Amino acid sequence: MLKISNTVTLQSWEIQLTAIRAQGAGGQNVNKVSSAIHLQFDIKHSSLPSVYKERLLALSDSRISKDGVITIKAQQFRTQEQNKEDALNRLAELIQSAMVVQKKRRATKPTRASKERRLKSKNIKSQTKSLRGRISH
């Protein structure tokens, strides 16, 4: 069972975990032992509340397929147990991040003083550059 929040939990039957061989260098451990974990979670067929499902499906994340399946590959650690824990933590973080509401941006205008400072600095730069020209006799 994976705890997402105080009220939302995921049952273990909803999450499909598969052990696969990790990529990269590592000798015998990588070549013989299936220590990486491939996690798949179907958003549409899960017991998540509808608000969670809508927000997750609206995310533009490469880990979420068009069919609404989250795929996470964990191969950072040497042991299968650590990779399994890492994959489950990453799934929980993804679901929690979907529920964070972004602040609405309010458009602001620059202050009068900042406009004056900008124009003054432009004027100074202009004078400096005009002095760099050729000197006429």
From TrEMBL:
Keyword Hydrolase attributed: yes
GO CC annotation terms, alphabetical: cytoplasm
Domain Prokaryotic-type class I peptide chain release factors: 21-37
A GO BP annotation: regulation of translation
Family matches, as Pfam families: RF-1
Enzyme nomenclature, EC number: 3.1.1.29
GO molecular function, one term: ribosome binding
Disordered: region residues: 102-137
Broad class of where this protein is predominantly found: cytoplasm
InterPro entries for the chain: Pep_chain_release_fac_I (IPR000352), Pep_chain_release_fac_I_sf (IPR045853)
Keyword Cytoplasm appears in the UniProt entry: yes
Superkingdom classification of source: Bacteria
Alphabetically ordered keywords of this record: Cytoplasm, Hydrolase, Translation regulation
TM stretches of this protein: none
Top class in the EC scheme: hydrolase
UniProt cross-references to NCBIfam families, sorted A to Z: PRK09256.1
Subunit structure: Associated with 70S ribosomes and polysomes.
Similarity comment: family membership: Belongs to the prokaryotic/mitochondrial release factor family.
Protein name according to UniProt: Peptidyl-tRNA hydrolase ArfB
Lineage: Bacteria, Pseudomonadati, Pseudomonadota, Gammaproteobacteria, Vibrionales
